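To: structure desk
From: M.T.
Subject: fold request, one chain
Message: Could you run this one when you get a chance? Sequence is below, nothing fancy, just the single chain.
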Amino acid sequence: MTTNEWSSANTLEKNYFVYRLMISKTDLNLFVIQDPVGKYKQSLIDMMPRDGADIKYNKSSGYWEELFV
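Reply: Done. Structure tokens follow.
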């Protein structure tokens, strides 16, 4: 996340979402993280500051959405 994205996530809290689209030869999956700063404060994601923030998450950090193609 960029510095501005992290700042916006901090301001918007539960109204800010991160969407991670994962594509493979056999699957199309969407992982959704709501309020990443709040999740960070709850130790549900790890964040490493850089020129923004590198985010590491696990299955407790968000939820999977089924995609239909």
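Reply (cont.): Residues 3-66 form one domain. Let me know if you need anything else for the meeting.
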